[in-house]
Amino acid sequence: MGLNPVKGKGKGKGTGTGASASENRILTIPNGLTLIRAFGIPLFLVLYLGHHQNFWAFVVLVIGAATDYFDGKVARALNQVSKLGAVMDPAIDRAYIAATVIALAVRDVIPWWLVLILIARDLWLAGMVFIKKRRTGTVFEVTFLGKSATFCLLYAFPFLLLSGETGLGRVCHITGWAFALWGIGLYLITALQYSTDALSKN
After folding, report:
1. Average pLDDT of the residues in 60-69
2. How many CA atoms within 13 Å lie on the side-chain side of 110?
3. Where do the structural domains in the chain lie, given as residue ranges?
């Protein structure tokens, strides 16, 4: 969830025909990392909901969070930015977060009100995207707070998955909720920022 309809990590600066051709590439290492995260979504659901394999589901979440961090770094380091990556990366982030929060709610790890907040935020922001697109012909630029919100939630879920009432489980519970609450707060703040941008007359 936490829709951030922005120019994604694959978006980079470039000029001329060479830059345009580069941005149209599909088979790149960053796009491969993003696809790994996409394949992790159904795998996580099968492991966590179907087989109750919490540890391996945790591993999948950690790998997903790692690929979310490294695909953008690799794209810039290897000059492999692409239009496909710019679209695919944030879309898979949203699907990844949505699948995880719903699965955690189904297992009663997190309350449903958290899921509803994220859904309401997404629906509201989808309307803001439509308004901005109609008014300016552009979409929202990525913000530091928006990327920080995604980071917080992607790192909250592995901890929440291993949460418990004693020992390490208690530490994971506290850490996970710290990340989750920061992520929710930042998502609401960025929703306000994007809304102001979409409705601004400037």
Report:
1. 85
2. 31
3. 16-199
Name every residue whose Cβ is closer than 8 Å to that of residue 157 and which is 6 or more positions away in sequence: 61, 97, 100, 101, 104, 176, 180
167 Cβ partners below 8 Å, 6+ apart?
A: none
Q: Is the pTM of the predicted complex or chain greater than 0.85?
A: no
SS3 140: strand
pLDDT tens figures, 126-153: 899 899 888 888 877 778 888 888 888 8
Question: Rg of the chain's alpha carbons, rounded to an integer?
Answer: 18
140 strand-pairing partners: 6
Task: Give the model's confidence band at 4: pLDDT under 50 very low, under 70 low, under 90 confident, else very high.
Answer: low
Q: What pLDDT is attached to residue 66? A: 84
Tokens 């928006």 locate to: 146
Angle between helices 144-161 and 83-106 (to 10 degrees): 40
User: How far apart (Å, rounded) are the C-alpha atoms in residues 183 and 159?
Assistant: 14
* 106 neighbors 43 (Cβ within 8 angstroms): no
Overall fold of domain 16-199: Four Helix Bundle (Hemerythrin (Met), subunit A) (1.20.120)
User: Would you say residue 23 has pLDDT above 80?
Assistant: no
Contact 141, 7 (CB under 8 A): yes
Residue-wise pLDDT for 78-102, tens only, equals 777 777 777 777 788 888 888 999 9
